[in-house]
Amino acid sequence: MTDSCPPGPPNPHNRRYDHYDAVTYTPYPINIPRARRQVAHLTAIWGHPHSAGDAALLASELCTNALLHGCLRDRLFRVETSLTGNALRVAVTDPREERPRLPFPQTSTPGDQFGRDLLIVRTLAARWAVERLTVGKTVWAELNIAGRRET
Questions:
Q1: Which of 7, 60, 65, 113 yields a CA-CA distance of 20 to 30 A from 119?
Q2: Which of 27, 29, 36, 45 is nearest to 150 (CA)?
Q3: Alpha-carbon distance 124 to 77, whole Å?
Q4: What's the pLDDT tens digit per position in 24-70?
Q5: Which of 84, 28, 35, 31 is nearest to 55 (CA)?
Q6: What torsion, rounded to 10 degrees, do the Cα atoms 131, 127, 48, 83 define?
Q7: Residue 47 φ/ψ region, left for φ over 0, alpha for ψ in the -120 to 50 degree band, beta for the rest
Q8: Are 139 and 127 in contact (CB under 8 A)?
Q9: Is-contact 108 117, C-beta < 8 A?
Q10: Which pLDDT value is given to residue 133?
C-alpha cells in the first residue's frame, strides 16, 4: 500500500501527522453519510470547525465515487482522515482489483444526475490525486488549513 495518510511515522516526504483516523465501511449507501459525519466531527474536534463542512463534502463525494465505481460486493472501503499543521487530508481507498477505474473529471449537463463529483473535489481541494495500489486505488483530497486552531 502507498503512504496515503500514514499514522505516526513520517512518510517519504518527512511529514508527520498531528492527527490520524481510519474507518472501514461496508459498500452500502448508508455509510456515505456516516463517513461524512465522521470526517466533519474529526475536523471540528481537531480544532478546525470552520473547515468541517468542506471536509464533509469532500468525504461524501469521494465515498460516493468509490461506491459507484470502485467497490465490490462484500469488500470494505476505507476512509482515512489526517491533519498536519497546514492541511487536512481525506483519502478513500476502494478494493477494485482488476485494472481499477481511475477517476477523471467529466463534463455534465444541467439535467445529468451524476458526473459532478470531481468538479466539486477540484473546486474545494487545494490538492487531490489518485494513487494506484496493488489492490484497488486511493483517491485523496487536501484542504489548506489556515490560521489558528479553534477550540
A1: 7
A2: 45
A3: 22
A4: 999 899 999 999 999 999 999 999 999 999 999 999 999 998 888 76
A5: 35
A6: 40
A7: left
A8: no
A9: no
A10: 85
Distance between CA atoms of residues 3 and 119, nearest Å: 25
Q: pLDDT tens for residues 96-109?
A: 655 545 555 556 56
1: pLDDT strictly greater than 50: no
Cell of 49: 470547525
Give residue 29's identity as a one-letter amino acid code: P
The DSSP code for 12 is: T
Q: In angstroms, rounded to a whole number, what is the distance separating the alpha carbons of residues 97 and 117?
A: 22
Q: Which of 91, 83, 99 is nearest to 65 (CA)?
A: 91
Q: What is the DSSP letter of 115?
A: -
Q: How far apart are CA 55 and CA 39, in angstroms?
A: 6
Compute the distance between CA of residue 45 and CA of residue 33 in angstroms, rounded to an integer. 18
What's the chain's Rg over C-alpha atoms?
Answer: 15
Chain-centre distance for alpha carbon 35:
10
Give me the pLDDT at residue 9, please.
Answer: 39
pLDDT tens-place string over residues 66-94: 888 766 677 889 999 999 988 999 999 98
